[in-house]
UniProtKB/TrEMBL annotation:
SUPFAM superfamilies: Cytochrome P450. The keyword Metal-binding applies. Coiled coil: none annotated. Keywords: Heme, Iron, Metal-binding, Monooxygenase, Oxidoreductase. CDD domains: CYP107-like (cd11029). This is Putative cytochrome P450. One of its GO terms (biological process) is cholesterol catabolic process. One of its GO terms (molecular function) is steroid hydroxylase activity. Residues 1-14 have a biased composition (Basic and acidic residues).
Length: 428
């Protein structure tokens, strides 16, 4: 959207005569409209349609700017004057308006996702150090063992579901392994994590107990690791509390652990499920994936670009006027970026609609960019490669048990089910 096509800002126009045709600031990207979330056409419009910056609405009904073009999204993610922390108490009020209880709001009002500047760098530095390459590589054998065990279970299921019996449990087990969540709590955390995944539109009666339960267990784990450290992420972060220069208080540690659980498992769950579906829908690429294990890194990066396990980021708020894609975002206004659309922008990617596991130019934004680049991006790639390789090695004849159109995800909803057939004999 350029200044010559539309007014710089809605209230810059001199009344109805200032533009002709449809209102260019109509709220088409409307997260407050349930139909937008469940209508597949709405999502497809943002993946394949025009790429100007336009107006929209957030889940609480507030106005936002929406950026979908690759260069616009890239600028938003790297722009230092756009902050994650909403102005004033708007973040708190937004959660309260969606029915989140006040004590839960307090817990989520200042997390890594809504921190900026020195506080954000302090916490992020600690987590980055804990999520070292050594720790990630050390997890690979454990991930492979988890995958094989779950695949054994998948084969024993009378009606195997790739999400319920493989993608979801693998993702939550690995993140629990990383954090150091004891076995006795893992099934409960799995249930809580499913509830927390609905944070955009939470059911207060389910959401609040899940948050309180996970927070309570996390505090128990913090106390236990303080008394007897282990080789896990919680122990390492507790140890960092002894460093006064970068001290994390227990409330910050609890919030951080919960954010890592939610971000870490939901992204991987979606990557495995969507990646498997995409490969099954592109037999030539699936054959390439099976026959060329050396392309694993590149292949999974392309699956991230093509399937968009994370569709969009959290809002960014302007602290001063900033130009994005020909419009001026004013102080206090919010910008939402659609990663799924940016990663299919034909101005950046040749034949973006194609799944091409050999794609060489792939500067995808699937894990974001800049200060808030996904901390677990490297782990997600490792998990995705191991999970998909193990899956198709074990079940080379795997295929959907239903028409893919029945299970394909709606725009903002993850795939909920993925019934599969594991062998040719099941066709009889």
């Amino acid at each position: 959207m350029t200044d010559t096509a539309v007014p710089e800002h809605p209230h810059d126009a001199d009344g109805p005569a200032a533009t002709s045709g449809p209102d260019p600031f109509a709220s088409e990207f409307d997260l407050s409209d349930p139909a937008f979330i469940t209508d597949p056409a709405a999502g497809e419009r943002w993946l394949s349609g025009p790429r100007p910056v336009c107006r929209g609405k957030f889940a609480d009904g507030s106005d936002i700017w929406v950026a979908t073009g690759y260069q616009d999204v890239r600028k938003v993610l790297g722009e230092p004057t756009l902050r994650s922390r909403p102005p004033g108490d708007s973040h708190r009020q937004s959660m309260l308006s969606r029915g989140v209880p006040e004590d839960i709001v307090d817990m989520f009002d200042s997390t890594l996702l809504t921190m900026d500047g020195a506080d954000h760098m302090r916490v992020r530095r600690l987590v980055t150090r804990a999520l070292s390459a050594r720790r990630m590589q050390a997890l690979s054998p454990a991930i492979a063992r988890v995958a094989e065990r779950l695949l054994d279970g998948l084969a024993a299921e009378p009606e195997p579901d790739l999400i319920a019996h493989y993608a979801h449990p693998l993702a939550i087990i690995v993140i629990c392994e990383l954090l150091g969540v004891d076995e006795e709590y893992r099934e409960q955390w799995r249930e809580w994590s499913e509830t927390l995944a609905q944070a955009l539109r939470p059911d207060p009666e389910q959401f609040a107990p899940a948050v309180r339960g996970m927070a309570g267990v996390t505090r128990k784990l913090i106390d236990a690791r303080r008394a007897a450290p282990r080789d896990d992420l919680i122990s390492e972060l507790v140890e960092a509390q002894e460093d006064d220069s970068e001290r994390l208080n227990d409330d910050e540690l609890v919030a951080l652990a919960m954010v890592l659980v939610q971000a870490g498992h939901e992204t991987v769950r979606n990557l495995i499920a969507l990646g498997a579906l995409a490969l099954l829908q592109h037999p030539d690429q699936l054959r390439l994936f099976k026959e060329n294990p050396g392309i694993g890194d590149r292949a999974v990066a392309e699956l991230v670009r093509h399937t968009a396990p994370v569709k969009h980021t959290f809002r960014r708020f302007a602290t001063e006027p900033v130009e994005i894609g020909g419009v001026t975002v004013r102080p206090g206004e919010a910008v939402q970026v659609v990663l799924a659309a940016a990663n299919r922008d034909p101005a950046e990617f040749e034949h973006p609609e194609r799944l091409d596991l050999t794609r060489e130019h792939n500067p995808h934004l699937g894990f974001g960019r800049g200060a808030h680049y996904c901390l677990g991006g490297s782990l997600a790639l490792i998990e995705g490669e191991i999970a998909l390789t193990s899956l198709f090695d074990r079940f080379p004849d795997l295929r959907p048990a239903v028409d893919p159109a029945e299970i394909a995800p709606r725009y903002l909803l993850a795939m909920q089910r993925f019934p599969v057939l594991l062998s040719p004999e099941e066709e009889k």
